[in-house]
């Protein structure tokens, strides 16, 4: 492993970061990745101020709860000498974005216009045309947008892709993807439960799976939705090298009996040709690995994000056709009402 | 109330571990996925009025909340405690219960009017090392006056001053925000305050001298990493806690993790700490907040002489 060589490479030119969305669930992984890659967090922003986690990584980072103050700070950085407190120089190299999904587009644009490359959580944006517009800003600013597509860095998925790539070119695999990650009522109070803000279940909990599927099995030929509601989505994807039936849900009632009996609240299964592809573990370092790739010029940009954004957009606006054709067996599970009656 | 904050998970855990149920939670911020680890069925609200509506509906159904737990920013405790009493619940509030002694008088009235009780979390009184210390003092010679140096430095970055914690009107300042449980503990172990002098007080530290009935205590509390002792800094650590009694170090670094659950157990058994128990430490921190520092005069904590730092925002 040439990890030390990589570290050394980054250490000799420490990059300045800003983090937008510092109080959220996923922010600590970005702080860790910035730290692990030997870089520096200069400024952080969130509307909520419970951000003591910053002390574990970058206590000298400037923190703001108002966006205009972050903007002012980054602006001033450009015209100031190196900050003796936190070692930040004039240049903002990267803006990391881990805000609610519907704000990604705005925050990415902000980062580019601030003269920084942007590293954004998935989904990069909610709609395919947002990508076109961002590509324009990339050109105007000469800066790049990178997306966290961490499943492409997962050993089990890399092995799967290799297996598929080495299979006869006319081979079409049969794949069942099941992902149930139970969420309580709070989900519907938060932005995650608002389709206009999160994009709905397929976008919010599924976009990285669709990215992985198209990365491994090729382009979409047909996209059919069987069931789609506030708490689940079931459908069929005809890909170049696979026929995929999927079921994604945040409703714990959908958990298989054996998972329930074991007291588990998450169930993940990728069945290919009747055998399980195991990928439950190995997620912890994927943000850091994503950052290392980006620093080495191998990050995933706008065009890599497009495929999965198109899929989730199409799923969001499709009319579910019900239990017709080749559907995932869980699609037949009893529907539930929205807990708030919506 | 305050489900998205730093300390909320300890309350969730304590409610769960005492076999109880969380029916409703509120926080203006919605990153509360932690609920799934404890009470996924709980109703969560971002707006206070929707939370109130929900609880009032439960109440008219005869299933109102027995207890309201408050772990919001310090300056909101008083309002949230009163709210809990008003809707007929007992209240368990984080420390500091309130910022000013007179708030306690008003809360006592509200307790009487509602017939409900207010409890606070004074978890150091359940810490084994502290209980041992109290026993030692009580069983030792009654005329002995101990000498103690208390040093607590818990480094906080710049974010602290952006958050409500860095606003003295909202957090009460360093003594109140990071120190109240120490003053409660000292008072509990060594008896009433005879004299309280503040030597140094600023946005990031407070140093002073308190004469309790059974001890002379020099204290230094700080959130500034630059005030850490050299040996701690060189190890890359950011927290330093020292409790030195007549030249001997008292170990109490560990054993904090289950103290919230312990506090809940006692409250549910009718042995919780109420307004009366909270009053003395509230008075101590109020007096510190409103005193004029005398500077390096008299018997002061050695760290009081450390170089003063400017507020990072120039305030």
Please explain how this structure is put together:
The complex is a heterodimer of chains A (342) and B (315). With 342 residues, chain A is α/β, with parallel strands linked by helices. In chain A, the strands form two sheets. In chain A, strands 3-2-1-4-5-6 form a six-stranded parallel sheet, sandwiched between helices. Chain A has a six-stranded mixed sheet with strand order 8-9-10-7-11-12, with helices on one face. In chain A, helix 4 packs parallel to helix 5. In chain B, strands 7-8-9-6-10-11 form a six-stranded mixed sheet, covered by helices on one side. Chain B is α/β, with parallel strands linked by helices and 315 residues long. Helix content of chain B is 36%, strand content 19%. Classes of the chains: A alpha/beta (342), B alpha/beta (315). At the A-B interface, strand 3 of A face strand 2 of B.
What's the helix and strand layout?
The complex is a heterodimer of chains A (342) and B (315).
Chain A lengths: L2 H9 L4 E5 L6 H10 L3 E6 L16 E3 L2 H12 L15 E4 L3 H13 L3 E4 L7 H14 L3 E3 L7 H12 L6 E9 L4 H4 L5 H4 L1 H18 L2 E9 L3 E8 L2 E8 L7 H5 L4 E7 L2 E2 L9 H10 L6 H16 L25
Parallel strand pairs in A: 1-2, 1-4, 2-3, 4-5, 5-6, 7-10
Antiparallel strand pairs in A: 7-11, 8-9, 9-10, 11-12
Helix pairs in contact in A: 2-11, 4-5, 5-12, 6-9, 9-12
Chain B lengths: L7 H10 L6 E3 L16 E3 L2 H13 L6 E4 L6 H10 L3 E4 L7 H14 L3 E3 L7 H12 L6 E9 L4 H4 L5 H4 L2 H17 L2 E9 L3 E8 L2 E8 L7 H5 L4 E7 L2 E2 L9 H10 L6 H15 L26
Parallel strand pairs in B: 1-2, 3-4, 4-5, 6-9
Antiparallel strand pairs in B: 6-10, 7-8, 8-9, 10-11
Helix pairs in contact in B: 1-10, 3-4, 4-11, 5-8, 8-11
């Amino acid at each position: 492993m040439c990890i030390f060589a990589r570290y050394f490479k980054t250490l000799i030119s420490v990059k300045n970061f800003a983090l937008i969305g510092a109080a959220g669930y996923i922010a600590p992984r970005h702080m860790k990745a910035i730290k692990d890659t030997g870089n520096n967090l200069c400024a952080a922003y969130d509307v909520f101020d419970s951000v003591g986690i910053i002390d574990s990584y970058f206590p000298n980072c400037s923190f703001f709860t108002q966006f205009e103050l972050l903007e002012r700070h980054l602006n001033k950085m450009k015209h100031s000498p190196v900050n003796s407190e936190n070692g930040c120089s004039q240049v903002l190299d990267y803006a990391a974005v881990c805000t609610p999904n519907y704000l990604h587009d705005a925050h990415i644009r902000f980062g580019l216009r601030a003269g920084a490359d942007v590293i954004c959580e998935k989904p990069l944006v909610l709609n395919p045309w947002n990508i076109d517009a961002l590509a324009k800003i990339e050109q105007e600013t000469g800066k790049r947008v990178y997306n966290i597509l961490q499943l492409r860095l997962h050993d089990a998925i890399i092995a799967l892709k290799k297996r598929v790539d080495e299979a006869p070119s006319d081979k079409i695999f049969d794949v069942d993807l099941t992902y149930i990650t139970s969420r309580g009522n709070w989900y519907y109070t938060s932005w995650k439960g608002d389709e206009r803000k999160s994009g709905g279940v397929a976008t919010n909990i599924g976009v990285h799976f669709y990215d992985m599927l198209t990365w491994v099995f090729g382009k979409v030929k047909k996209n059919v939705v069987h069931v789609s509601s506030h708490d689940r989505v079931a459908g069929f994807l005809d890909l170049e090298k696979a026929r995929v039936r999927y079921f994604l849900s945040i409703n714990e009632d959908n958990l298989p009996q054996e998972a329930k009996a074991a007291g588990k609240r998450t169930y993940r299964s990728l069945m290919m040709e009747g055998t399980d592809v195991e990928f439950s573990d190995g997620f912890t370092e994927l943000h850091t690995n994503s950052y290392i790739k980006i620093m080495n010029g191998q990050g995933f940009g706008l065009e890599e994000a497009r495929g999965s954004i198109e899929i989730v957009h199409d799923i969001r606006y499709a009319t579910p056709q019900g239990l017709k054709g080749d559907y995932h067996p869980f699609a037949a599970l009893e529907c539930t009402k929205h807990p708030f009656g919506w | 109330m305050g489900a998205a904050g730093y300390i909320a998970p300890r309350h969730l855990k304590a409610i769960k571990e005492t076999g109880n149920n969380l029916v409703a939670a509120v926080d203006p911020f919605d990153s509360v996925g932690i609920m799934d680890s404890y009470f996924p069925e709980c109703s969560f609200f971002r707006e206070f009025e929707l939370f109130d509506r929900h609880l009032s509906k439960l109440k008219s159904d005869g299933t109102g909340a027995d207890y309201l737990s408050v772990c919001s920013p310090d300056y909101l405790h008083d309002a949230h405690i009163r709210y809990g009493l008003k809707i007929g619940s007992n209240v368990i509030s984080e420390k500091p219960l309130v910022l000013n002694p007179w708030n306690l008088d008003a809360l006592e009235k509200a307790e009487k009017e509602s017939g409900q009780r207010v409890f606070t979390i004074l978890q150091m009184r359940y810490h084994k090392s502290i209980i041992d210390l109290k026993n030692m003092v009580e069983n030792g010679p009654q005329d002995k006056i101990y000498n103690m140096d208390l040093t607590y430095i818990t480094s906080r970055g710049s974010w602290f001053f952006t958050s409500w914690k860095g606003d003295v009107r909202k957090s009460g300042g360093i003594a109140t925000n990071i120190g109240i449980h120490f003053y409660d503990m000292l008072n509990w172990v060594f008896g009433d305050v005879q004299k309280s002098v503040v030597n140094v007080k600023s946005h990031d530290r407070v140093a002073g001298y308190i004469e309790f009935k059974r001890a002379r205590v020099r204290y230094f509390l700080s959130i500034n990493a630059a005030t850490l002792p050299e040996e701690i800094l060189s190890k890359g650590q950011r927290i330093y806690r020292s409790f030195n009694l007549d030249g001997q170090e008292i170990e109490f670094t560990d054993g904090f993790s289950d103290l919230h659950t312990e506090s809940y157990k006692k409250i549910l058994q009718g042995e919780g700490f109420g307004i009366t128990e909270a009053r003395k430490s509230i008075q101590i921190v109020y007096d510190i907040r409103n005193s004029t520092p005398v500077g390096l005069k008299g018997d002061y904590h050695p760290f009081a002489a450390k170089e003063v730092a400017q507020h990072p925002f120039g305030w």
